[in-house]
Amino acid sequence: MLTIDCIQEVKDYYQMILNQKSRYYEIVEADNKVVLKGEKAIGEVRFHEMNILELEITDIARNEIVFYLHFQYNEKEHAERLFREMKEALVKMKDRRTLNVLLSCSSGLTTSFFSDQLNSAAELLKLDYHFSAVSYNELYEHGMQNDVILLAPQIGFQMKKVQAGLKGKLVLTIPAQIFASYDSGSLITMIQKEMEKAKPKRTKTQWMEEKLTNDARVLAIGIVNGAQKIRLIYRYYNQGNIEDYGTILKPNISIRDIEDIIDTQIARHPEIERIGISMPGTEVGGKVTYGDTFNHEDISLNLILKYKRWVTIENDCNSVATGLNALQDHFDNLLFYFQPYGSPFGGSGVIVNGQLVRGKNHYAGEVSAVQKTFNLDHSPQEVMWTNDGVLELVSKTLAAEICTVAPEAVFIHSRLSADMNVLREELKKYMPEESIPELRYLDNFSEYMMVGIMLKCLSEIDVYNLKE
Length: 468
Description:
The protein is α/β, with parallel strands linked by helices. It has 16 helices and 22 strands. The protein has three domains: 8-96; 99-198, Rossmann fold (3-Layer(aba) Sandwich); 209-459, Nucleotidyltransferase, domain 5. The chain has helices at residues 8-18, 76-92, 109-124, 139-143, 159-165, 176-181, 184-198, 204-212, 255-268, 299-307, 316-327, 368-371, 380-383, 387-405, 420-427, 446-459; strands spanning 25-30, 33-38, 41-48, 52-59, 64-72, 99-105, 129-135, 148-151, 170-173, 217-224, 230-238, 241-250, 274-279, 282-284, 287-290, 294-298, 310-315, 334-338, 347-352, 355-356, 409-413, 438-441. It starts with 7 loop residues before the first helix and ends in a 9-residue tail after the last helix. Residues 462-468 have low confidence and may be disordered.
């Protein structure tokens, strides 16, 4: 039954699913979800606060998710179409072929007995597995017709040879303890785990391509700080495609400049649903503090009330780090360091194990605090205008950050410290060379910033729908 707070249309949708009839699956009602139990797969429609729904299908035999999506209920026709797609995928699962597992030992006798036990266990567990056994001499003749090859311990030394001969098949050696005790349960669990490991992992590029396939209409605005001018970059992402874009140059920044972009874009594209803004300064809960311009100002709430659209605020360096993390496959631990031209203080975005680090009050990466403690040869106001001074500032800042999070790579934008070889030599003063990560200079980071703020908006797609 539904116990969440939701609109009447969602309640009707829930009832519509309960009223489904099919000879291919049984419908069971549970707390805030409807379960569709098929012979070879289980479907679930889960209901959440804010009118958010999840549709998921799990392959019983392989214990893997084969269909998944989530969305916020807005239109009846759209929601019903998604459920129809789920039903069709669930019904098709009935035709999914059996997982064939072939056991082999010297003569095939002991594995034949074990395969009988495994078939009984699979039937008891309602797994669509079929086990058979052959002698090693017959293995290559029958191996290609099977999905998984299991070698008895006594011929385990042949595993590399079998893998080479049966390329593309999952070849495993049965542990001696499992084989000696004919432990069917442990062997089936091992097969499932090894199949999960063997599945090709999505690269970040593939993940990004999937993310860009969405129904969202997002206006992304990036504010890039500089000594002589401020750049305001904007892009309108319509279902993942860039439909409108531009750049504005100004000597300084005010909230009115941001509103001018929003006003113009909404006039051109009234279908815009949410707005993401990447800007310098510290941000907590939409409130921004940046120099003398913004003092804990609730920019997010003010813009939400004015434009009746959800507004997401993100720190500029965090946006770039998020974009870097999404658009490259090589590093799961990285830093983006930004030393604005003509500024005594910089900032960082920190990615650890593929996740953005924010910390208490989103203070992670606010390196100006540590920079104020440095014993520099000259004052920060003098240092920021010379190559040697900026090199000292950047190298000391990075030394402090590297020894804290030990990233695999550091991406840097600093006009007066752009030579990575020189920077590496400077870092050697503070740490062993082997501890210095890969250093890469980013001449233009706006692409990463815009992707980062768009991804932040997409991650908040399940927030309160202001239209309701």
